[in-house]
Structure formats: C-alpha cells, structure tokens
Design a protein that fits this description.
This protein has 39 helices and no strands. By secondary structure, the chain is mostly helical.
Length: 748
C-alpha cells in the first residue's frame, strides 16, 4: 500500500495499479486498496475496471460517498447522463441525511443539469432551500416542478407545487401570474419569481426568512386527550369531502343529461340543509340512475358514517378508495369506520395503507423501497389476529389528531425531515411507526440530542442521555443502535459489536430481516473476518429471497476461512455457494468466479484432478475463456492425460490465432520447455515456427521430433516429419531425402 500510494502521488498509474493488485491479492476486502486501484484505473481512463472496483466498495457500503462520486463521474464519461443524474441524486440524499445540506443541494443541482425531468432532485432542492429559509430560490424550484408537471399534462400536481410556492410567498405577484399561466394553458415561467420582492410587495410576515428554526416547538406526535368537538376544520377528511362536493357540482353542469344529475342536485341541497337522511336517500337514487362517481361514493360514505350506518359507510368508502384521487381519504375514513364497527384487523390494514400512500410520496429511490417494506411489516404485524384494541385505539387517535390539522401536508413534510435526520444509516423511519408510538417525541429528541453530543465528543453525556431514553422506550431499537454507536466512539469495540448483534437478533425475532441485514453489514465493517456474523448475513439474504447478495457474501466468507488457514471450511462454503448459484440464473458470473477460486485452491494443494474438474465445469459455461483453457492444459499434462491436454491446447491455439498469433508461439515454447518429451507439443511448436517464418527453428524442432518418433518405433509418423522438413527447403535437403528413403525402405 505504501508503494501504491507513492506511485499514485507520482502519477505512475500503471505501477500503482500493479501495487494495488498485490495488496488486494493479500487482502481482498481492503477498502483502501480497492478504492486506490479504482482511482488509478480511472486516471488511466480504464473505466470498466475502475467501475468494478467502486461497485465492489458499494456492495459492502452502499452509502460510500467517494465511490458514488466516482461512479457518477464514470457514467458521465461514458455518456450515460441519466444514470449519472440518478447517482448524483443518491449522493445528495446521503449528504442531506448527514446534515450537509449545502453539499446535498450542489449534488441535486448537478443531477438536474445532467438530465431533464429530474423531478425528485428539483423537489429536494426546493425543500432544502425552504428549510434554510431561502424562500425565493425555493419558490422558483417549486415553479420549475409545476412547469415540468404542466408539460406532462398533470395539472393537479402542477397546482400542488404552485401552492407550495404560494405557502412560502403568499403575496408574490409572480406566483399569482404562474397560477394564471396554468389556468390559461400558457407555459409556467419559474424566473418570474424575483430575487427580491417588488416595492409594492412587502415580505410576508412570519415567512421562513424570519424564522431561526424550520421546525417549531409544537409536538407533532403527542397523544393528548383528543376531543372530537374541538377538532380543527379543514383536515384531510374534510378537505377531501369538500373536493368531492366541488367535483359533484361540476359534474352536474358537465353531465346535465345524465338522469342522475337532477337527483344529485337535490341530494346536495338536502345535505346543505343538514337533512342527512334525505340526502342519503337521494344520493342512493343518483347512483342507481348513473351517477356512480368516486366523489359520490366518498361523500355518501361520510354521511353514512355520520348517521351511524357503518356497514353502508364501509361499502361506499371502499369503492371511493379504488380511485387514486380519493384513495388516501377513503382509506383513512374506512379504517375509522371499521374500528368503530369492531373490525379491528380490517381497520388496521386500511389505516396503514392510507399512511403508506401518503408517506411514500415523501421519499424516492432506495428509501421508497425500504419504506414500502416497513409498511409491509407493519401490516403483517396487525394481521392474523395480532391487533391489540387498546394499541389500535391510541394509533387511531394519533392519526385523527394528526390529519385533522388544516396544514397536515406541511406536517407530513416536517415529520419526514425530522425522521430523516435521526434515522439510522441505510434505514428509513415510517410515519406510522411514530404515530403508533406514544413516546415518539422522546425518541426524536434523544436521537437528535445524542447526535449533537457525539459531534461535540461529549460521549459520556450522550451515553447517559441514550440510557435514560431506553428506560422509557426499551423496545425502540434505534435507541439501542445509537448506544452501540456511542460505544464504538468510546473505542469499546467488543461491547459495540455485542450490542449490534443483540439488535440484529431482535430484528430477526420481529421478522424484520432487512433491518437485521443492515446491522450485520455494520458489524462486518468493524469485524470483516467474523465468519459467524457473515453466515447469519447469508441466512438473512436467503430469507429475503436475494440469492445474488447471498452468493457474494458466500464468496467473502470462503475467502475469510482461507485467510484463517481453514482451507477445508473454505472449500465447503464454496461448494454451498456453488449449489445456490446452480439454481440462480442471474448468478452465472458469480458461479464462474467460485469455480475459478476452487480450482486455485485445489491447484495449490496439488489436487490436480479436482482442480481440472472445477475448470471443466467452468469451461461449460464459459467455453472461450483463455485463462481457463491455459490452466486446463497444464493440469492435464500434470495428470499425464496428453490427449485431453492436446485437445484443450488446440482450442486455445485457435483462440490465440484469432486474437494474437504471436502468442501461439510463446505459448508452445513455454509448454515445450515444461514438457520436452511430449511429441504433440513438439509437432505443434514446429508448425508455429514455420508459420512465423522461423525456418531454422522449425527444422530443429522437427529433427528432435523425428528422433523421438524413431526411438519409439513410430516409423510412419517419422516419415511425415522428415517430409515436413524437406518441404521447408533445408540446406542438406538431399541428406533428408536419403534419410526418408531409408526409413521408408525399412533400413532404419
């Protein structure tokens, strides 16, 4: 590594890559060696090996920023701008999770410049700028998003982002103009938001520019006693109902010939006069006469709920929730109805699905996948009769309180920002997880506070704070994980690893294998040679139905056993990996890698028969691999299987002749020096000399071959050899003719 680093500093990249290769041969999992090799290869513009190196680092540590940056650079060099943009988006997301917002904004901005249509990048820039109090640049980003959705024909999303800009700058003339552009069909121009407000337009009081802290002190998740009568108006259910009423009013005008339109008008009139029984009756008639619209289903479902007709309410809300526009409100109202009807399991499923729909809109990429899995686990925990009514009641109360607020969308956004700040590396917290946990604020506050203590190197204080929170919320594993992080900072490595393993065990007991995987990966960064932990990680990947990562870990596990001088155990793990690879179609490359490694081990143990068997298996899947064929030739010669060696050699010669004819002569010269008594080799070497116009060397080789053939009584073959010499035109051609006559006549 010292040599490699020195060569790199001197710009001697070829020497550096060679030195890094030596380092990786000794320590295949050395992150420093792999990254060093990747940098050196990149400096020589060898993009493929460089990418493989950085991808190897990312397999172990998917959030390694330096490797991600190099991967993005390689994508740019290869002209894969969309892939580069996605990588920069991921880099920005990781930087944001580390509170490096400025760097995150730079990465997201780069993503938007590389590829158009980067909605997620623009959204993150807008949110981050708003969080920093830079409301005008943030508003411009929201207008950019609105323009993008306008081009896609999605006016609803465009209007949503215009409203987000309006929330930041409620009195700005540019935003009013943007709304007008959307309504008229003109293209929205983001730059109508000026850098400074116009003289006639003072900055809005209470704007983000006047706030020192993006998050107020109000507890978003507290579970105080909830009074239905004191609930603020305009929450999720009420707003969705208002949208439904407006939509029905429009439908009456647009579809006046529909027989149900007149009845729908009467139903709305009865509802406005608060005669709900008559309203329900007329809505039923409207549906029967053709007004079967999602807006009608949703509104009627809420009316049934109000009148205590829970079965009918559930039916209508279920039908409304089938439509994307009413999915969230429909599911939330449906869950409340089912809970009231005592259908606790169905209620839990509906409420969780409502939260999933909302929460998934706040994340993207890998986080979206992880969040979806979190909701799958939560739904599974509530299924099969596992619903505790008291727990569900508290959960429902928390949901009602949260979504009863008129600014619930902003609260969701703020909650996501806070959760992202305290989430463990490689994991994502769900809104449902916090809403069902009464001690949410304790958790958030502790994680945020201990994070600051760790940054300030106040490790004992951080540990004490974490332990206090664990006493109050002992079941919340991220707190235990934070305590393990603190132990690690205190150089208490063994204690930290024990704690991580305890956390992973609990995740496994809770049937959360993906979370257990994250913890095991963290432990292996600390103790890469821990074969027991790596074995558990393999089990987790297999339980998740992810055979390729399991195979990669199998290979690393086998390598670890080999480095620990447990060669038999290493071979055993390679065999297990080979069995798994055999039933994994997408693992062909890994299968070949396993066979090659096994062959190397058998070769080192002088078990040439097993080495040859491994390479023959590899040859079936990769028949034209010169490296494999070259090793097989040697092995068959060592096993005294000359015919098999010659057959493989001829295949290798054909490949070399197409790729590099000079290499044929080098190969045969080398092999003949190892096995000088093999007449097949001698004959092929003589031909190669002749083909390369080395007549003298060809004749000498044929002479030696002829003598060997005569000594072994192979007269016919000797005749052919002498004839080949004569055809080359030697100086003593008459002498060779006499010799040929003597052999043919039986004198020799």
């Amino acid at each position: 590594m010292m040599h490699a680093d020195r060569f790199s500093q001197e710009g001697k990249w070829a020497d550096a890559t060679k030195a890094y290769r030596f380092a990786m041969a000794e320590f295949p999992n050395s992150e420093a060696a792999i990254i060093g090799f990747g940098k050196a290869a990149l400096a020589m513009n060898q993009l493929k090996p460089a990418r493989k190196a950085f991808e190897q680092v990312l397999r172990v540590n998917p959030t390694h920023l330096e490797s991600l940056a190099f991967i993005a650079d390689i994508h740019e060099r290869e002209g894969q701008l969309d892939a580069a943009a996605e990588t920069y988006l991921k880099i920005g997301n990781i930087q944001a999770s580390l509170d490096d917002v400025e760097s995150a904004i730079d990465s997201w901005t780069r993503a938007t410049r590389l590829a158009s249509g980067q909605v997620n990048a623009h959204l993150r820039i807008a949110d981050a700028l708003a969080q920093q109090g830079k409301v005008r640049p943030a508003a411009r980003e929201y207008l950019t998003l609105a323009a993008m959705y306008q081009r896609r024909g999605d006016k609803e999303q465009a209007r949503k982002h215009l409203k987000a800009a309006q929330h930041l700058l409620p009195d700005d003339e540019g935003i009013a103009a943007a709304f007008a552009m959307l309504n008229s069909g003109d293209t929205i121009q983001p730059h109508i938001i000026r850098d400074t407000p116009s003289e006639s337009q003072p900055a809005a009081a209470g704007s983000f520019e006047e706030s020192d802290d993006f998050f107020d002190e109000e507890d978003l998740f507290a579970l105080d006693d909830f009074d239905e009568t004191e609930r603020p108006s305009g929450g999720l259910l009420e707003r969705t109902q208002q949208n439904a009423l407006e939509e029905m009013a429009n439908l009456i005008f647009e579809d006046g010939e529909n027989p149900g339109a007149l009845v729908l008008t009467q139903a709305l009139d009865w509802q406005r006069s608060e005669n709900f029984d008559e309203a329900i009756h007329h809505f039923q008639q409207a549906i029967q006469r053709g007004a079967a619209y999602p807006a009608v289903f949703y509104n009627l479902g809420l009316l049934y709920r109000r009148q205590g007709q829970l079965k009918a309410a559930a039916e209508m809300l279920s039908r409304a929730a089938e439509h994307p526009k009413y999915r969230t409100g429909g599911l939330l109202a449906l869950g409340l109805v089912q809970q009231a009807a005592g259908q606790f399991e169905l209620a839990a499923q509906a409420l969780i699905e409502a939260l999933r729909t909302i929460d998934l809109q706040t994340v993207s990429g890998q986080r979206s996948y992880a969040l979806a899995q979190a909701y799958d686990r939560l739904a599974a925990n509530y299924s099969n009769g596992g619903v505790e009514t008291d727990k569900l009641s508290k959960f429902t109360t928390a949901l009602q309180r949260f979504f009863a607020n008129p600014d619930w969308e902003q609260r969701v956004y703020e909650a996501r920002q806070r959760m992202n700040k305290v989430a463990e590396e490689g994991s994502v917290m769900s809104l449902a997880e916090f809403l069902e946990t009464p001690e949410t604020e304790i958790v958030i506050t502790t994680l945020a506070l201990t994070g600051e203590y760790i940054k300030s190197d106040m490790l004992m204080t951080a540990s004490e704070e974490c332990l206090r929170a664990i006493q109050k919320v002992p079941h919340y594993l991220p707190l235990h994980s934070r305590l393990a992080d603190i132990m690690l900072k205190q150089n208490r490595l063994e204690h930290a690893i024990d704690k991580y393993l305890y956390i992973a065990t609990v995740y496994r007991m809770r049937h959360q294998p993906d979370q257990a995987v994250n913890v095991y990966q963290k432990v292996l960064k600390l103790a890469p040679m821990d074969v027991n932990v790596r074995s558990r990680l393999i089990e987790m990947y297999q339980s998740l139905g992810q055979p390729v990562p399991a195979l990669e870990q199998y290979i690393t596990l086998a390598d670890s056993y080999y480095q620990l001088a447990q060669v038999d155990r290493s071979l055993e793990k390679y065999e297990e990996a080979l069995n798994l690879a055999a039933v994994t179609p997408e693992a062909e490359k890994l299968k070949n890698d396993i066979l090659l490694r096994m062959a190397d081990i058998y070769n080192q143990r002088f078990d040439w028969a097993k080495a040859a068997a491994s390479l023959e298996s590899l040859r079936k899947s990769d028949p034209g691999n010169p490296r494999v064929l070259r090793q097989l030739v040697d092995l068959y010669f060592k096993l005294n299987k000359s015919n098999q060696a010659t057959a493989v050699l001829d295949q290798l010669i054909r490949i070399y002749q197409r790729q590099n004819p000079v290499a044929v002569l080098e190969l045969l010269t080398e092999l003949t020096s190892y096995y000088p008594k093999d007449m097949n080799l001698r004959q092929r070497l003589a031909v190669a000399y002749a083909q390369n116009n080395k007549i003298k060397e060809a004749i000498a080789e044929y002479d030696a071959l002829g003598e060997m053939q005569l000594e072994n009584g192979m007269r016919d073959q000797a005749v052919q050899t002498i004839q080949a010499i004569i055809n080359l035109g030697p100086n003593d051609v008459e002498g060779y003719r006499r010799l040929l006559s003597q052999i043919s006549g039986g004198a020799l």
